[in-house]
Structures are given as structure tokens and as C-alpha cells.
Amino acid sequence: MPAAAPHVDPSTPAAATASYEMESLIRRNAALEDLVRRSREELVRFGSDAERSEERLTNKLLARLGQLRLEKEKLAMNVEREEEFLTNTLQRKLRQLQQDKVDLENKLESEQEFMVNRLQRQLEVANNATADKVQLENELEQEQEYIVNRLQKQVLAVKIEKKKVEQRMLDEMVAMVSSLEAYAEDPQMMKHALATAKEALHERVKAHKATGVAQDTSDTTSLNNEVLLESVSSRHHLNRRGTL
Questions:
Q1: CA–CA distance from 68 to each of 73, 74, 81, 133 (Å)?
Q2: What is the DSSP letter of 9?
């Protein structure tokens, strides 16, 4: 409440001035009081608005924080599931790769073993074929040598027999000539004996030639047959060895 103004005569100029100033002060004081009141109201209203704004902001931040917490938990769960899925997938692929590696190593080992065994069998077959070939060549050479030696022996035997026959004929001719010497004094008997001896000798030569040719032919045929049979037997034996 404003203080009571001192009593002044209003008719004086000083009193008028003082009254004017007092009224001005009163109006100014009233204006200031009104300003203070409005300021207080504004402060109260501003405080309420600020409090409500702060509350709204706080609620909004809390809601956002809760949402972020939920999103974080959801993201963490998704990341955990994704990590678990990736881990399981990688482990499964790793096991598959390890199994594929083991299978590939086993397959490679089996193929190598098969190839080694096959090459060894082929090498053994080649060695056996070479040994059989050498053995067959040696046997063939021995059989050929045996046949040649046998032919040479048979030819030599034929020559010896021929010489014996020729020697026997010469001996018979000498004996015949010696027997003719007894008729040397009788030309007629000598001539008759010579004719008889000549005819007998001629017949003997003819018979000997016929017998010798037949014997030579028979011996040659027999020899050829023996050689042919031995050759056929040898070839059959070689063919059987080659087939085996």
C-alpha cells in the first residue's frame, strides 16, 4: 500500500509539481506492480509450460529409450541367431570339406594302387612274354640243330652204304674177271663166258639200280616224313606254348 502523501497546498506551483510527480510515481508504481504481477504470472505459466514440456520430453525420451532398448535387445538376439547360424553353417561346411578331403585322398590312393598293380601286372606279363620268347627261340634253335645233325648223320649213313655197295660191286667184278681168266686159252668159251658175265652184270646193275633208286626214294621219303613230322610236332608244341 502506498504511503500517505504530505499535505501541500495545491494552489502553489511546487505543490502542483509535487502532486504531478506523485501521481506519476503512483502510476509508475502501479505499472511496475502490474508488470511484476504479469511477470509472476508469466513465470508461473512458463514454469508450468516448461515443466509440462520437460515432462513430455522426458516421457518422449523414456519412450525412445525403451524403444531403443527393445531394438537393441532385438538386434542382439538377431545378431546372436545370425552368429549361431553362421557358426553352424561354417562348421557344417568345414566338416563337409574335411569329409570331401578324406574321400578324395582315399579315392586318389585307390586309383594309385590300382594303377601300380596294373603296371606291375603288365610288367610281369611283358617279362614272362620275353622269357617265353627267349625260351621258345632256344628250344627252336635246339630242335633245328637236332634235325640238321640227324639229317647229316642220315646223309653220311647213306653215303657210307653207297660206298659199301660200290665196293661190293667192284669186288664182284674182280671176282668175275678172275673167273674169266680160266677161259683165256679158249676164245670161244671166253667170248661165251664174257657174254654171260656181261649179261649177268648188266642184269645185276639194272636190279641194283632199281633197288637202289627205290631204296633211296624210300629213304628220302621216310627221312622227309620224319623231318616233316618233327617240324609239325615242334610247331604244335610251340603254338601250345605260345597260347599258354
A1: 8, 10, 19, 94
A2: -
